[in-house]
Structures are given as structure tokens and as C-alpha cells.
Amino acid sequence: MTTIELPCPAKINLFLNITGRRADGYHELQTVFQLLDYGDSLRLTRRDDDQLCLHPELDGVASEDNLIMRAARQLQALHPHKRLGANLSLIKRLPMGGGIGGGSSDAASALVGLNALWGLKLNLTQLGEIGLKLGADVPVFVHGKTAWAEGIGEKLSPIETPESWFVVLKPDCHVSTVEIFCHEQLTRHSSPIKIAAFLEGGNGNSCEPLVRKLYPNVDKALIWLNQFSPAKLTGTGACVFASFQDQATAEAVCAQRPNNIDGFVARGVNTSPLHKALGIL
């Protein structure tokens, strides 16, 4: 195997409950990461040297700061005496700063893909530990299952959800996750819930009131989408979403969205397209 092309699926947070703040500044939370069948694509080609080349570079992100490159460097560092190199080509479909895991998913696909391409034989637990160093959302993409998550998002338990269709909208704004999590008005002490409570309809987002207040475009997108189905914020945003029973209805709603809002339709899945592509089920 010298070349592989892998999906980098999006995720949405079906709910997000912030239950506390740790001494190191990270927040304790509960959420459900719902994987989608839509996302970026990453093509990896093995090289005979130890060089890593990523194309194209993302606007405003230096190549060495890109999570894909950082993931690859982490794997290289574990095997300093091997000639591990690759050309990496990214097709970017997911908006940056949308709260749907684009960069984290790209990094996870790089970790899982290069592990296979280079024959390193690391298991998903080992790859997930590397991913956690890159970001709290990376492990869920490495493990490849829609999951109930606690801690800072790294304590994962696979969960089966209905494979609904979702309309995901990206308002014309960029929400800073750091700003939201550092804001004094963020609700940080929501009461923990059990999985059963979530399944019975416990599906709020602790960040949503603050994000709606600070970002009027997010508020407008939620109001518009709520006409068709209960609309929610994913993560800290800016993306919002709503679920529908079938693809046709979701496509019809998405087609009506305001001109200044990007969007896409995707199906919720319980196993990542990345893992299906590599036969990891």
C-alpha cells in the first residue's frame, strides 16, 4: 500500500453539558458526539524519505501548525530511526471554526491512515492517546464511534443513535472556542445527567445562550432553522443543526436557507466512514 484516500467525517454535539472547571483551565463536560457521513478528504502517499509535504496550505494556518502535520510529526517521533515520509493532500469541505470537528477529524485520519501506510501497528487506544495531545475532540474520530463523552471529551463510551438526516448550517461568523470557554457568563455548573436522561430528551447546550448573545448571526440561524425542526448549536458553534427523518426533507430545507448562510445535508452514522474505508469495524 503506497497511497490511500480517506474520509475525515464531521461531528455534531447532540447536547453539551458543562459540569465544572478544572484547576488547569479545562472544562468538565458531558456530550454525545454524533458522527456524520460528510466531511473532508485526505490523500496520503508514502515517500522513500522522511519528508512530510502537505498541500494545499490552509489560509491563515502555517503548515507546521496544521493538526495534520502535527499528528504526522507525533508518529514520526515514536520511530526516529525509520524513514517515515508522506505527501498529504487535503480536500477541505468543512468550515473552520464551526464546531463540527474539521481540524480534529483531519488529524485523526492522518494518525489512523499513516499508522496503516507506514505499517506501525499501533492500536486505536495508542493512537487516541496521541490524538488527545493534539485536541480533546481528536480521540472520538480515532476510535470512530458515535459516543457518549465525559471528562474533557476524552472518556468515550460508544452509543447507538438513530441514523437521522441533519441539516447543518454555518452562519457568516467565526466563534472563538477560547473566548466562549473563558467568558465569565458561561454556565459552568450544570447538573450531570445519565445516558437514559439524554435518550429521554435531555439535549441542551450550556454554551448556546452565551453564543446567541455574543453572535447575532448564530441567533438568526437558529431562529430560521427552528421553523422546520428543533434547532441546536453544536459545540461552541458557529454551526447549528436540526434533524429530519429523511433525506428529501432535509435537502428541501437546506435549499431554502438564506443566501448568506452555507450549509450541507448529512446522515448521522454510528461507525465512522474512516474506519469503514480501512476495514476497522
Could you give a quick summary of the protein structure above?
The protein is α+β, with helices and mostly antiparallel strands and 281 residues long.
Report on this structure.
- The active site is at residues 11, 137.
- By secondary structure, the chain is an alpha+beta fold.
- The chain has two domains: 3-159, Ribosomal Protein S5, domain 2 (2-Layer Sandwich); 165-269, Alpha-Beta Plaits, CATH 3.30.70.
- It has ten helices and ten strands.
- Strand 1 (3-21) and strand 2 (27-47) form a beta hairpin.
- Helix 1 (67-78) packs parallel to helix 2, helix 2 crosses helix 3 (124-134) and helix 7 packs across helix 8 (216-225).
- The model has no long low-confidence stretch (mean pLDDT 94).
Q: How widely separated are the two ends?
A: 20 Å
Q: Helical residue percent?
A: 25-40%
Query: What top-tier CATH class of the largest domain fits best?
Result: Alpha Beta
Order of helices and strands: EEEHEHHHEEEHHHHEEHEH
Strand segment count: 10
Overall morphology: globular
Question: Could you tell me the strand content as a percent range?
Answer: 25-35%
**Which structural category do the helix and sheet elements fall into?**
alpha+beta
Instruction: Output the number of helix runs.
Output: 10
CATH names the topology of the largest domain as Ribosomal Protein S5, domain 2
